[in-house]
Amino acid sequence: MAAMKFYCDAERCIECNGCVTACKNENEVPWGVNRRRVVTIKDGEPGERSLSVACMHCSDAPCAAVCPVDCFYTTDDGIVLHDKDICIGCGYCFYACPFGAPQFPSDGAFASRGKMDKCTFCAGGPLEDNSSEEYRKYGSNRIAEGKLPACAEMCATKALLAGDADMVADIYRKRVVNRASAALGSGYQQRQMNFGPKGGMSGKVTN
Amino acid sequence: MRMTTARVGHGHKIIKWFVATVLLVLVLPLVPYVFDAYADKSAAPATTSSVPSPGAELWRAVRQRDGIVSGTTQARGVDAGTLINPAGEEWREYRVTKLVPYSAYIFGAMLAVFLIYYLVRGRIRIKGGRSGVLIPRFSLYARWVHWVGAVSFMVLAFTGLVLLYGRFILIPVLGAEGFGVTASVGKWLHDVTSPLFIVALIFMIFTFLKESLINFKVDMMWFLRAGGYLGGKHPSAEKVNAGQKLWYWAVALGGLAIVASGLVMYFPNFEQGRQLIQDSHMIHTLASVFVISFMIVHIYLASFGVEGALECMTTGYCDSNWAKEHHDLWYEEMEKEGKIGTTFESEQQAAATASAKPTEG
């Protein structure tokens, strides 16, 4: 029983939107839908950081809790998926989700909502693995092929990590430890290394 | 004696040392703070403490601890720049732990009260029996307005309740996929019936306004006697009694709140944010629970609860004895105007001849 998780390392993300492009390409996402997006906080200011965000595959998913037709389910890998044949496009999951992951293609008059679409962790849907219908509705099923999500595989700086929560946490822990020792070894004042308002080109520590 | 004094002296020494140690350990470390408190702060330059922790700052902003922080993003969409929306969890709490159970309790309690009332009191009969003399009460126009409003509201209420309770009641019966189809049809019905209800609501507000204006003395007396439903003499009532007036205002004000909040949810093409939609959903549901529970009262009393009530809205006429018992003030008024035993057609003819006479003369 693994628990699949995404983690975006804010010290590494360079806002290249490669993950967004990879996702759209891999899953043939409908027009107007962004399963993944990169958000930059303090853009152009000291302390600027970017984060790539999609469905976080919550253990206690708010979308599943509020869905009036109960179309969400969690796989054995801890991936939160939904059934588009049951979804009625009410938008409740979009209101409840903290991350803005559920997206709705506009369908019909007054941009009324179509079937909800969201990140599947590249694990398709409830239909037969890698069938054409599954691909049409949910995108590719890389998990069934033993691969990780395309966004994380594509990430050039390896900021976006995807996989079993324990392994992702392990990798991130090692990075944090290395950063701390690099910071001590470099001999600078902490202010110069971090991104306080003073200290020239502030920002990223090596590693 | 010697021994004891020595002991006492020794004891004094211990206490002295003890007090000294306590002072040293507890009070002495506080001395710098006293100096710090009275020190001149303006001159002292900030030292190490002003270096902010970058991680803490970033995650405070992401977690929206100090209000909503929106970043920039290439993605086009509603609230796309917001990384975490804390209001979603509040809305989930409201819907899952409050709205669903408490509204069920309220509806259940309403139904139980009327079931018990029916079992104890039974149907309220016309005491004097039917006289057979009819009084015109609701015109064809008023009946149409009533029934279009009533049917459209019932459809909306029913499909709304399907969305609210279907997951708990209908999925075990129909299965998830079967209920998916039902809910889709229900949502579509809810969407297409709502414009009809909006029109009917506006017509209802104007059609029944005159008779629903509050007559404080009569209506207060009606409420104090609980409308005569709990025994005692039937209080006086005008064309509609105080309870019906309250129902009118519940429909008018509750209906407007439902329509206004519903329109916000109906048109996502204006790209309104989640916060506004969540607030609208809250208003929509609270007002609906209120109006639906009031509707249970209205349907019970206007159909099998009171004999002779339903025919007013179907045929348009009521029995004169029923009017005497339930709406005595209105009966007196009708008697004065000589409308007892007349029909809508005869009235129209009378009105036509009355208006025609001056032109002849």
Protein chains sharing the most extensive interface:
A-B, 52 and 52 residues
Instruction: Provide the spatial order of strands within the biggest beta sheet of chain A.
Output: 1-6
Quaternary structure annotation: heterodimer
Helix content of chain A: 25-40%
- Count of helical stretches of chain B: 14
* Straight-line N-to-C gap of chain B: 139 Å
Summarize this structure briefly:
The complex is a heterodimer of chains A (207) and B (361). With 207 residues, chain A is an alpha+beta fold.
What does this structure look like?
The complex is a heterodimer of chains A (207) and B (361). By secondary structure, chain A is an alpha+beta fold. Chain A has seven helices and six strands; from the N terminus they run βαββαββαααβαα. In chain A, the strands form three sheets. In chain A, strands 1-6 form a two-stranded antiparallel ribbon. In chain A, strands 2-3 form a two-stranded antiparallel ribbon. In chain A, strands 4-5 form a two-stranded antiparallel ribbon. The longest helix of chain A has 22 residues, at 165-186. Chain A is globular, with a radius of gyration of 19 Å. The two termini of chain A are 32 Å apart. In chain A, 42% of the residues are buried. With 361 residues, chain B is mostly helical. Helix content of chain B is 70%, strand content 2%. Chain B is built from 14 helices and three strands. Chain B has helices at 2-27, 31-38, 54-62, 87-121, 140-169, 171-207, 209-212, 216-224, 242-266, 274-305, 310-314, 320-326, 328-337, 344-360, and strands spanning 72-73, 134-136, 317-319. Chain B has a two-stranded antiparallel sheet. Chain B is elongated and about 115 Å long. In chain B, 23% of the residues are buried. The mean pLDDT of chain B is 86. The interface between A and B is large, with 52 and 52 residues.
